[in-house]
Specification:
The protein is built from 18 helices and no strands. Helix 5 packs antiparallel against helix 8.
Length: 413
Amino acid sequence: MASDTVLGAGSTESPRPVGYLALLRQREFAGLYASFSLTAAATTLSGFALGSLVQTRTGSPLLTALSMFGSSFAAVAGALTLMSVADGGRPRRTLVALHGLSLVAVAAQALPGLPLPARFGLLLVLGFFQSLGTGARMGLLAEIVPASGYAPARSLMNITAGGASVLGFALGGALLSVLSPYQVFGLAGVLAAMATVTVAATVRERSVRLVRRPGLRETWRGNVALLGRPGRRALLLNLWVPNGLVVGCEALFLPYAPGSAGVLLAAVAAGMLLGDLLVGRLLDGAGRARWAFGLRLLLAGPFLLLALRPPVAVAALLVGVAGVGFAATLPLQERLLALTPDAERGQVQGAESAGRITWQGVGAAVAGALAQVLEPGWTIALLAGLSLVVTAASRRAVRREAAGCHGVTAGGA
């Protein structure tokens, strides 16, 4: 394949810029990308169906928020115990097995008689294995694409996640008007099965990998090294906390606007798609670094205005603009990758993703708990304000860490 000269094993950086089409012409990346897209769509559909089911049965903002984002809590368990399997000797086999386990968890939600406690238990199982799967997937991604293709590849995958969310939330609302939540769960299970088959058929095994045996001890060793530097901790803090608090804002869309929650969620996802397209495709590494801080401010700022209860169209525009700010993760992820030894890429990227997902669960839980005593609009504004405080307070440490990365300009961080 001609593109293999540009997109080899990922160990040598291409001298030419790597575009989306060049990435998609590479069979392994195309398969990894397609399976990720299907998984994102399945997760979005099943999460919206479960949130609607819980909202109807309980009317509780806390339980509704946890049903949509509660799987995030289990992600930290995967990061703390077995994330080193992402750098094991057979990453393809690991990824296929984790896809299969996630498929079982999603499909089980389609059982009509399943009680709510069992559904929340399945959420925890799904979150645990999703975190390990993310680590394995991102470890493979760093090997499949060259260093110059990493940011465009993550950008394309983030765009797809945004697009899947737009379609998932929009279609989820439409489907639930004609189908039961259990039937929507069934559709999500079909998508998850397609993702499993796709990754199994397209991604090849990698034989040269970590020589240490994966397990609890190796996972702890890697996590201690990851958190051992103050600047690196600041990078992780900015990847986890501001995003998580803003996701907490999103978790209140159902109680904030019961009839228009799907519109607001789709608007955020559309903003994410646009932001990743602009930042990942049009800016180089130095440009992404310069815009990182401003994007993190944009992420939370517009949510402050939801306390004023604007019309749905205005609220959708505000949260859509805020969604562009999620693209701040790209330059921060690039810096983290630059600080990571090759043999630990899967674990570090998996831990970063697990922490980000876990903080989304924390944000949803905090939002739901506050909304029990505060009006949802004011709760959203409070969480957005906290996100801005964290971003501003940690800026100096992030700039200091960015200055130590080769080829990355610290300005604007």
